[in-house]
Design goal:
It is found in: Membrane. The chain has 14 helices and six strands. It is mainly alpha-helical and 389 residues long.
């Protein structure tokens, strides 16, 4: 009895711990993409769907423990055991959808900073394999018995409830195949950022940090590998008791994937909180926020202050890889009265004869429309520009 109670508590604890962690990470992701960088995209929508199904997964896991998950059939009333098996069946649906949407979200996120055709097609391949493997596995698990209700009534072999299920060895074999596909996709998505970042012109510490952030999604594959030895428990008679490890590690896999995939998008939030140590020109885009970075000077001349939040043309783009974007900069009055720009400046003044409107009586600042031109054929510069966004 103590062992059964321990297994029940383990299921409840895992679901109760990973659900709020994943939810907080997704909420922070939505805040960053919707309000800080203003670039909410399909990858964020897919992660929200993954979070919804993961919440359903955790809810059905906890609900199942209230009726018998973790206990042997001999310790349960038949009615409670049937209800617990129904919850287990719903867990399969929620797990498959949460896993599929999570992997799709991570792939779409990497496509924001991917420019090489081979990398793009690699991500498309991962998404296609994820969808095919996930859908096939889900329908196999859901339709393994006919009628469907026989899945949760078969354990008691009630002759009044006729039905049959496919050979359990097929279920076990397909679970191994699906686990292999899942681990392969996770490792592919985790290794790909290394090829995206390793040629960029940045400090080694920064490069390693970016690789680690973008590769966090492959953490979920560790849970898949740990779960593989327990797949054989599908064939056990005491199903609710024997398959606890599968339920636990499936929950950990999905929770880690959602959390890691969302944490990879939170770099702008850290910049708002802590500032940017590597880019003295960085601004959060919030009025009044990070004013120190706007006032930094180099060689006695004020640097341009990019108002990135005013560029609305990229908000609805999945991959903002346009050739030129219009930005607004604030320049000192010394530059407006005839001062020369830096030789390395890429700005072109558009108001030659007309003075720019003044921002304040004695501030001495004016607003100019300038163009920031990027060359998409230079792989490393383009990837670095997108990664910093």
């Amino acid at each position: 009895m103590d062992d059964e109670l321990r297994r029940k508590t383990a299921v409840q604890t895992v679901a109760a711990v990973f659900l709020p962690i994943a939810a907080i990470s997704v909420i922070l992701r939505c805040y960053v993409r919707g309000w800080i960088v203003k670039a909410f995209g399909w990858d964020d929508a897919a992660m929200i769907l993954a979070m919804i199904f993961y919440a359903m997964f955790c809810g059905t896991m906890i609900g199942g423990t209230l009726y018998g998950t973790g206990y042997r059939y001999d310790s349960l009333e038949p009615r409670n055991a049937v209800t617990a098996m129904e919850y287990w069946w719903l867990c399969e649906i929620a797990y498959c959808f949460a896993s599929i949407f999570c992997k799709i979200s991570v792939c779409l996120f990497l496509m924001r900073i991917t420019i090489k055709r081979i990398h793009i097609w690699t991500l498309y391949t991962v998404m296609i394999l994820t969808v095919i493997a996930g859908v096939v596995f889900m329908f196999l698990m859901l339709l393994q018995c006919k009628p469907l209700s026989y899945f949760w009534t078969r354990a008691f072999q009630d002759p009044s409830v006729p039905g049959y299920c496919i050979n359990i060895d097929i279920i076990i074999a397909m679970t191994y195949v699906y686990s292999g596909f899942s681990a392969f996709c996770d490792f592919t998505v985790g290794i790909l950022p290394i090829f995206l970042v390793h040629k960029l012109h940045m400090k080694k510490q920064t490069k390693v940090a970016v690789m680690g952030i973008l590769s966090m999604a492959c953490i979920a594959s560790s849970a898949v590998i740990v779960r593989i030895p327990f797949v054989q428990t599908f064939a056990e008679h005491d199903f609710l008791y024997a398959t606890i490890e599968i339920a636990i590690w499936s929950n950990i896999e999905t929770g880690l994937g959602i959390t890691a995939g969302s944490l990879a998008t939170l770099r702008p939030l850290l910049r708002v909180w802590m500032g940017s140590r590597s880019d003295p020109n960085y601004s959060s885009g919030f009025p009044g926020a990070r004013s120190r970075s706007a006032s930094r000077q180099l060689g006695g001349q004020d640097r341009p202050f990019p108002l990135g939040s005013l560029d609305d043309s990229v908000q609805s783009r999945l991959r903002p890889d346009k050739l030129a974007v219009t930005v607004t900069t604030i320049k000192s009055q010394r530059d407006l009265d005839g001062g020369s720009l830096s030789p390395s400046s890429s700005e072109e003044r558009l108001t030659i004869d007309r003075p720019s409107p003044r921002l304040g009586g004695d501030i001495g600042l004016g607003i100019h429309r300038t163009f920031e031109v990027t060359q998409t054929s230079t792989d490393s510069e383009e990837v670095e520009r997108r990664a910093r966004a």
